[in-house]
Design brief:
Layout lengths: L1 H28 L1 E2 L14 H7 L4 E4 L7 H18 L1 E9 H9 L5 H11 L2 H4 L5 H10 L8 E6 L5 H17 L8 H14 L10 H22 L4 H17 L4 H23 L4 E5 L23 H5 L3 H4 L2 E13 L7 E2 L18 E5 H7 L7 E5 L8 E5 L1 H4 L2 E8 L7
Parallel strand pairs: 2-5, 2-6, 3-4, 3-5, 6-11
Antiparallel strand pairs: 1-8, 6-7, 8-11, 9-10
Length: about 425
Amino acid sequence: MKFTFTCIITFLATVTFSQSEIKTFVASNTIPIQSISPDSLDFSDFESIGNSIGNARIVMLGEQDHGDAPTFLAKTRLIQYLHEKKGFNVIAFESDFFSATYGFENITKTKQDFLKFYKANIVPYWTFCDASIPLFTKVIPESFATHNPFIIAGFDNQMFYKYSTSHLSQYIDSLTREYKLDILNNETLFKRILTSIMKLSNPMLCIAESKSFYDNSINDLTTLKQEFKTKKGNENIGCVLIDNLIAFTQQLLKKNNFTTMVNIRDIQMAETLKWLYKVKFPNEKIIIWAANYHISKNMGHFKKKSLNDNISMATELVKDKAFDTVTYSLGFTSYVGEAGRIGTKTFTVDNPDKNGLETWIDNSAEYAFIDFEKFNSLNPQFTTEFEMKSCVSDNNVHKSYPAQWNKIFDGIFFIRHMYPCKIKN
């Protein structure tokens, strides 16, 4: 018993000593951020973030949950900074790939047309939130009158927003005919595929189908994809759209296995993001708007073994070292307050762990930035877990958990007081 007690004390002392490195760094190197207001256009307080981002060409902006109003304000201001000072033009949302990317591409770039477009084709947790109004009604549409307008895209394989429902099956039909694919000779099969696409791109119909429908759809879509691939190559838009449809159908098949379902989605989002970067926008820098979980790099080292089955989008993305070197992930955390997505009940967020990262930040800081890139360069051997409020699984939000957060995110944006969105029509 004495030996066991001694071992426990020694272990705790070792962890505490190791953790002191990150605690000391945060306490002495946290950078205050003066404002999260999109109207604050003096970006001098963001210089440390810009320096940390360096030459990255993909910057991922997270959020603890999809209803965090001050986070949306901060991200809007960061988007303005990245656009004006760092040359980022593309904003890619965790939203319907086809609707956001091709729906936007096909509207007239006027404020009036964009205001009609965005609420029907981008996730409503953001578009109906009062804190996102500056982004969608001012920052983005007013850029259309400049020489350097924003470009909107999406990377989610759940393609059932308005533009997809109205146009996806027609678009794939027209591509098939343009490329004169052999499948046109099998009229019965091709009609069945188009019917499947119409159902899969309709939010009311896609969830009501049978297992046999999903199985048959995957087989049929795989046949069509092979023809696109043979005729035009794997990077052709036809292949990419069908990959997204197949992944979504696989999700529907696995809806009773949450981890598998989420992994299918995140892996496909990573593949779509690669395509956006390499093929669709090869000369552009891309801002990613998504949840903390999806932008988490290098997951898979948690104490709770079941969490190590999770595969986040960014973890999948940076397995390719070419993307690891160009991707910067900025996570968000908060201290106290309330949260809740639009249409759900608000809740009080958990307090930080008594020795969590949030408690190491000076009490006078309402907003702050912590540069994990800098810490890692100074402490390359540091692998100790520490507590922080982020998201270690897709449905676990605003809760503290021990992890190697300095390996998961390149930087952290701290918000002391969290509050939820209000609906803005």
